[in-house]
Design brief:
Oligomer: heterodimer
Radius of gyration of chain B: 18 Å
Number of strands of chain B: 12
Largest sheet of chain A: 11 strands, mixed
Structural class of chain A: alpha/beta
Order of helices and strands of chain B: EEEHEEHEEHHHEHEHEHEEHHH
Strand content of chain A: 35-45%
Structural class of chain B: alpha/beta
Number of domains of chain A: 1
CATH topology of the domain at 3-88 and 166-256 in chain B: Rossmann fold
Number of helices of chain B: 11
Strand content of chain B: 25-35%
CATH architecture of the domain at 3-88 and 166-256 in chain B: 3-Layer(aba) Sandwich
Shape of chain A: globular
CATH class of the domain at 3-88 and 166-256 in chain B: Alpha Beta
Largest sheet of chain B: 6 strands, mixed
Distance between the termini of chain A: 4 Å
Number of strands of chain A: 23
Distance between the termini of chain B: 35 Å
Helix content of chain A: 10-25%
Strand order of the largest sheet of chain B: 6-9-10-3-11-12
Number of helices of chain A: 11
Largest interface: A-B, 24 and 32 residues
Radius of gyration of chain A: 21 Å
Chain lengths: ~475, ~260
């Protein structure tokens, strides 16, 4: 491919990069025990949660920021970050009429209208603006099915027993540096509870938006699917274009009890920084699910944004016959860096896991797949299939594959396949010779490359993901 | 005149491959280009289709009286130039049908025509695939992925019959085909012969020309057309071998060998 086209293709503009003018209640930069207390007080939290936060904070102080990942960034000054920012509003929202119209406009501009009559059929949305949840739609309809879907803060108020039982049960606060930080200062997020045997009647979706400058976003998502229940959940993320880096350190915990089925999809489009690598979000996220007997957890992620994406959505296959899946498309364009993959920990017997990772590197992007498949001693009959494909656009980017396999049970079957390819000049010429422009050809070839993953996304979002990938890659053929 | 190639010179890197090609092709005519390996036949097809790897250093190509060389490869396709590739590429994950509809609609858009919707297109595709005896399973497979050599060539002719070009260039479409596949492919091509359409059939062997009977035969050697004649020239060439050409144009033939 001519370098020119690759470059044109990668140079498309980030389209969610605007800032919303809204009055915020923001803490000054800095982190201390007092800050943790203030956040907890602002949220009117029960004592157990404050204690948990403080334990996490104190543990965090003893930890060192990890450096093993294959990404490079300047040291983060944790005292320069604001740990709380909330749009000023009435203390409790009874309806959407009370949401700041500026915020509603922001979401409308992002293509996510929060007014229910305009909503996509069958998708309930929880919108998180900076640190707090501003609106949750379709609550009543969900309540009829017994499904709880609300902001994390509300869950703490309304269902403290569930929070107490499950918070930190999959990702303990001591898990890792960023999980500990999140546990200390998290301000909101989404909570979902699906009762026994219930099939959630609609897709659930959380939309995360970072707006304020110099703010970190630390949200938690907790999904509990009781025995035999089913839920499909999607998160989307955007942020304004700013030339400083912003930290997003979220924690997602999934609990799939016996026979439950959780499908968790992510379309991540945080601001990636400009072509020279200024600004952008550091997306350092801990996502993990625990699958009990016969339960299934499926992660699908399309990661097109962020200056750095660093996350490994994982499944602990605890129960016998449980299933874990990970489908991922990660794009690293311009100066973006992605170090992402999954961990599948086989504990129960006859546990099965599937990993399909598609890494796309363009511009000066560096894309690393890092995955662990661990089969413990008692995991009789465990099976894993891993497929890692990398696609390179241009000659200044990189693709790296780092699979770790630890097998302690001789009956396990673990397969790993990997491929690296380049969009060839001959592929492009073939498309062009049939009348398809180079840009469209790249889009088509890349989408073909990702098809296995896109088909795992809920219909509405698969289309969005394809478009997003097209936009994120524009100008990158060469 | 549909295609006029005048004194065309082209190189790859600093190696000159085409050294002054002249060719005139009228609508409705089928011209065959034969020649030994390395004579520049395939290069000619790639240059006409607009492959950037080759640099045109001299000469001109008029398509319908317009400067073809000024157009991008996709604009040439839209103008009606189709190249059936010698080695069709695989595009994993991109459905054959989706690919072809994207191509057809891109061309239609550029021509200011309305795009075909999925249903109309499917009907068209099903109708056209009969000519090359392809079954519908082909439509949903990825472009050329896992196709046999014969299937790939049939797919090329199928695409051609959907896109309905004004000039079809077939680059060694017979290579790698057994006799049955050759018959099917040739049948598909013959079905597309029409008074408006020109064809440039590039082949190493005379065999293909038993099935696709040309109006004119040109023999290339050393980057030039060294001989032109009617269809009987192909038979004569078959009998006497390419050494015969070398004798006739020793300088040219020698240059063809690296």
């Amino acid at each position: 491919m001519s370098t020119e086209t690759i470059q044109d293709f990668t140079r498309r503009q980030y389209q969610a990069g605007f800032v919303t003018a809204v009055e915020s209640d923001t803490l000054p930069p800095g982190l201390s025990e007092d800050v943790v207390r203030i956040i907890s007080a602002k949220k009117g939290e029960p004592e157990f949660l404050l204690e948990w936060r403080l334990k996490a904070y104190r543990h965090w102080l003893t930890m060192k920021e990890p450096r093993w990942q294959k990404v490079q960034y300047h040291p983060i000054d944790y005292q320069a970050i604001r740990y709380y920012s909330a749009p000023k509003q009435k203390p409790k929202l009874e309806s959407l009429d009370q949401v700041d119209p500026e915020i509603l406009r922001t979401y409308a501009k992002l293509g996510i209208p929060l007014e229910e009559q305009k909503l996509m059929q069958n998708v309930a949305v929880d919108a998180v603006f900076d640190s707090v949840s501003v609106a949750t739609t379709f609550k009543d309809k969900l309540a009829k099915a017994g499904v709880i879907f609300c902001s994390f803060s509300e869950a703490v108020r309304e269902h403290p027993e569930l929070i107490k039982k499950y918070l930190g049960s999959v990702v303990p606060y001591s898990d890792n540096f960023f999980a500990a930080l999140n546990s200390a200062v998290f301000s909101d997020g989404s909570f979902c509870y699906v009762p026994k045997g219930v099939r959630c009647p609609m897709e659930l979706s959380t939309y995360f938006r970072i707006n304020a400058a110099d703010t970190g976003q630390f949200e938690r998502t907790l999904i509990v699917a009781e025995e035999g229940s089913t839920v499909s959940y999607l998160e989307g993320c955007t942020a304004p274009m700013r030339d400083t880096n912003q930290l997003h350190a979220a924690v997602v915990e999934l609990v799939a009890l016996d026979g439950a089925n959780i499908k968790y999809s992510t379309v991540q489009n945080w601001y990636p920084g400009d072509a020279e690598g200024r600004g952008g979000i550091y997306n350092f996220v801990t996502k993990r699910g625990i699958a009990h007997a016969r339960a299934k957890i499926s992660w699908t992620q399309v990661e097109t944004g962020s200056a750095i994406t660093w996350k490994y959505p994982s499944v602990i296959l605890k129960g016998d016959d449980s299933v874990g899946e990970f489908y991922s498309v990660a794009l690293a364009n311009h100066r973006q860096q992605a170090d992402t993959g999954t961990k599948m920990v086989h504990i129960g017997r006859n546990t099965r896991s599937t990993i399909v990772s598609k890494g796309i590197s363009a511009g000066h992007g560096q894309n690393t797949y890092r995955g662990l498949v661990k089969v413990l001693k008692n995991a009789e009959g465990a099976r894993n299939y891993t497929q890692c494909d990398s696609l390179l656009l241009g000659d200044k980017c990189g693709a790296h594959t780092l699979p770790y396999i630890e097998v302690k049970n001789a009956s396990a079957q673990v397969e790993h396949e990997a491929s690296t390819s380049k969009i060839g000049e001959d592929q492009l010429f073939y498309c062009q010779q049939r009348g398809i422009s180079k840009e469209d050809a790249v889009s088509m070839i890349v989408n073909g490359f990702c098809r296995q993953v896109f088909k795992e996304l809920p219909m509405e979002f698969a289309v969005e993901a394809q478009k997003l990938l097209g936009v994120s890659l524009e100008g990158s053929v060469g | 005149m549909l295609l006029s190639v005048r004194n065309l010179h082209a190189r790859i890197g600093d190696k000159e491959i085409l050294k002054g090609i002249n060719l005139e092709l009228k609508p409705g005519e089928v011209h065959a280009i034969m020649g030994p390996n390395g004579s520049g036949k395939s290069t000619l097809s790639q240059v006409l289709a607009g492959r950037e790897t080759y640099k045109v250093t001299q000469g001109e190509v008029l398509f319908d009286g317009k400067d073809l060389l000024a157009l991008s490869p996709e604009a040439r396709a839209t103008a009606g130039v189709f190249l059936a590739f010698q080695y069709p590429v695989e595009i994993p994950g991109v459905g054959n049908l989706h690919f072809l509809r994207t191509a057809l609609n891109a061309q239609r858009r550029s021509q200011g025509k309305e795009e075909l919707d999925a249903m109309d297109f499917l009907a068209l595709a099903k109708e056209r695939m009969k000519a090359v005896q392809m079954d519908q399973g082909f439509l949903n497979r990825s472009v050329n992925e896992g196709f046999s050599g014969g299937e790939k060539k049939r797919n090329e002719v199928f695409q051609m019959s959907v896109l309905q070009p004004r000039l079809a260039i077939l680059d060694e479409t017979d290579s790698g085909l057994d006799i049955d596949a050759l018959r099917i492919v040739a049948g598909g091509v013959n079905a597309l012969r029409s008074p408006e359409r020109g064809m440039l059939v590039i082949t190493h062997y005379q065999r293909l020309l038993d099935y696709i009977v040309p109006d004119h035969v040109h023999v290339m050697a050393g980057g030039r057309i060294v001989m032109s004649g009617g269809k009987e020239l192909a038979l004569e060439l078959e009998k006497k071998g390419y050494a015969w050409v070398e004798k006739l144009g020793p300088a040219a033939a020698r240059e063809a060998r690296p």
